[in-house]
# Entry
Amino acid sequence: MAQAANSEPRIDPDGDLVIAVDGPAASGKGTIARALAKHFGLPHMDTGLLYRAVALNLLQMGGDPSSEFEAVRACEIAQIDPDDPELRSQVVSSIASRISSYARVRAALLDRQRQFASQEGGAVLDGRDIGTVIAPHATVKLFVTATPEVRAERRMKELQQRGMTAHFADVLADIKARDERDSTREVAPLKQAADAILLDTSGFDVEGAIGEAVRLVEERLADA
# Structure
């Protein structure tokens, strides 16, 4: 796999292991992050769930996703149920992508993410800006990606397995639209950190992608 330049690992002075996993939608970063957390015995945060929870809260409040003020009000979430199927619905996903571009929404959720990343012993976080904004000090950074077509196929199957109706053309269009929003927004855009390792999962199955991710992290740690 290709590796970005300036790849000197950043070791936390307290010896904590922080792994940042970034990448676009349906790249496999969440699955990989959970597997890395299990492998290294670390707590895991899917930061995307924070934005989805805000989106769901906004939807249930009857708020307007085009209003940054109303989106910020929806950030007042105490707990998140990761098993709530509504968090992964297409509607919530679309709203989350839109409101994540608001500077005040990102600021409202920033401390929560940074506190998780700075806990004793370390942590694994996945999202869009972990290695660039949330945890630039991360010991190891991965940027996980795949072609839009592969990602759309994965997302379509995921939705269908949940009993939702999904069509490839619609899902692909949504994937491309989210990529555009995420990579061009002014605040914390999706981009590969200079010292992140690139992992393209297009040609991997789930187990293969996890195995490659573990190998890359262990290789980086061995070189530290």
